[in-house]
Amino acid sequence: MTDRPIIFSGPMVRALLEGRKTQTRRALPTAHPKFANHGVLDPEALTDPLEVWYWDGVHDRVGASYRLPYAPSNRLWVRETFAHDCDGVGCAYRADGESLGWTSPLFMPRRLSRLTLTVTDVRVQRVQEIIRGDAMEEGCPFPNMADGPDPRDWFRELWDSLNAKRGLGWEANPWVAALTFEVHRCNIDKLEAGDA
Asked: What burial class does residue 28 get, using C-beta atoms within 10 Å of its C-beta: 0-12 exposed, 13-18 middle, 19+ buried?
């Protein structure tokens, strides 16, 4: 079992707290030097389900591999925008609607995290392969009704707001690790100690 931090925006933290979010997609690093010619996934070449093989599209089974940083049973402690209170002991979270001097989630220490995610499934797919149900599990704020708005449209806007500036927008259709998880409303160390 591996523990690692994961950053979420304020709206996605609220979706976690409200029980609407049980999936997240994270872009795979296709710009990594190992991935010559921005290779493609070869699912038949997988010898380890957590290792993704890429190849140049010309030579069969030739290329580099990348080990996914996520696996079932991993625990992810959520980093979010936060602020220490005046006495330096407590913590306020931007997702709760407070208005304070905020600190980037990059600097949130593990001890201040209030949410822990236990990964139950990891899939590799193109971002545009998301289905309606998975878009709902990403935290879509409206009901998934056949005659209503498509939750995939909501997800596409969310994805672009977080990834387009990095060149990994919806139209680029990057490879992603799609994580499904259980949400625990407690600090990872309290979960480990059984205090949750």
From this structure: buried
Long-range contacts of 103-106 (CB under 8 A, 24+ apart): 105/7, 105/8, 105/79, 105/80, 105/81, 106/7, 106/79
CA nearest 134: which of 81, 178, 171? 178
* Residue spans per domain, the chain: 3-19+69-193, 29-67
In this structure, the dihedral spanned by the alpha carbons of residues 42, 47, 48 and 51, taken in order and rounded to 10 degrees, is -30
How far is Cα 187 from Cα 196, in angstroms, rounded to an integer?
8
Q: pLDDT tens digits, residue range 104-156?
A: 999 999 999 999 999 999 988 889 999 999 999 999 999 888 888 999 999 99
Angle at 123 between CA 78 and CA 76, to 5 degrees: 15
- CATH fold of the domain at 3-19+69-193: Sulfate adenylyltransferase (3.10.400)
- The answer for residues whose C-beta is within 8 angstroms of residue 105's C-beta and 6 or more apart is 7, 8, 79, 80, 81, 82
As a whole number of angstroms, the distance between CA 55 and CA 39 comes to 5
Specify the pTM: 0.81
Sign of CA dihedral 96, 102, 106, 112: negative
Dihedral pair phi/psi, residue 70, rounded to 5°: -125, 145
The answer to whether residue 48 scores a pLDDT higher than 60 is no
Quick count: other Cβ atoms within 10 Å of Cβ 96? 13
